[in-house]
């Protein structure tokens, strides 16, 4: 399979998975974002929230890395800058979810 | 050893490649619903991932404990904090509906110009309806 076809398929599959996760997240975010520490921490320490939130951010960053690289393709002319931008994007898409998942799994109320 | 003509040809090809036009050309677009939604989809997508990154940092700040969380809680309860909450509802709603539109196109439906315009308007109006719905469901108002 051609690399571009594979990238397109990954983008579409991840977007399909992300749709229900986005609905779940935004509804829960609205319910907790202005609450006090114990209520917010309680949400992130619940086993189901931890797991769904982790899956959500993994797919969100994976999807964003694939789609933002397309934006780079359209707007960055210099090949070297584009290469560096894509590398930084990929590192960012791995590091941020990884640290967040480690953090919320170590969170206790 | 390549002759001068070949070198000029190679040089021109490289220059042509380097000056390859970028797309989409926002400055020459005649704005219409399809182009407006296309660029809005990209901008909102970037805003969403910045917001998700901020939310990741927000969740990590919980590790610092109750005392350190107070200023964040204060900020999120200000008008600006609540505005961010509602705005995120809209950016998520818009992205969900427009992404759904893209997925339907990928299945081979909705390419007709008229249908495409109708689904575009529906996605835009629907994003505001979904914003209200998500906010009310989140706040347990239903």
What does this protein look like?
The complex is a heterodimer of chains A (109) and B (142). By secondary structure, chain A is mainly alpha-helical. Chain A has one domain: Fumarate reductase/succinate dehydrogenase, transmembrane subunit (3 helical TM bundles of succinate and fumarate reductases). Helix content of chain A is 87%, strand content 0%. Chain A has four helices and no strands. In chain A, helix 1 crosses helix 3 and helix 3 runs antiparallel to helix 4. Chain A is elongated, with a radius of gyration of 17 Å. The N and C termini of chain A lie far apart (48 Å). The mean pLDDT of chain A is 95. By secondary structure, chain B is an all-alpha fold. In chain B, 20% of the residues are buried. Chain B is flat and about 75 Å long. The N and C termini of chain B lie far apart (79 Å). Chain B is 77% helix and 0% strand. Chain B has one domain: Fumarate reductase/succinate dehydrogenase, transmembrane subunit (3 helical TM bundles of succinate and fumarate reductases, Up-down Bundle), CATH 1.20.1300. Chains A and B meet through helix 1, helix 2, helix 3 and helix 4 of A and helix 2, helix 3, helix 4 and helix 5 of B.
Oligomeric organization of the protein chains: heterodimer
Order of SSEs of chain A, N→C?
Answer: HHHH
* CATH homology-level superfamily of chain A: Fumarate reductase/succinate dehydrogenase, transmembrane subunit
Largest sheet properties of chain B: none
Strand content of chain A: under 5%
User: How many alpha or pi helices of chain A?
Assistant: 4
CATH architecture grouping of chain A:
Up-down Bundle
Question: What ranges of chain A have pLDDT less than 50 throughout 5 or more consecutive residues?
Answer: none
Return the CATH topology of chain A. Answer: 3 helical TM bundles of succinate and fumarate reductases
Largest interface, counted by CB within 8 Å of the partner chain's CB: A-B, 43 and 46 residues
Strand tally of chain A: 0
What gap, in angstroms, lies between the N and C termini of chain A?
Answer: 48 Å
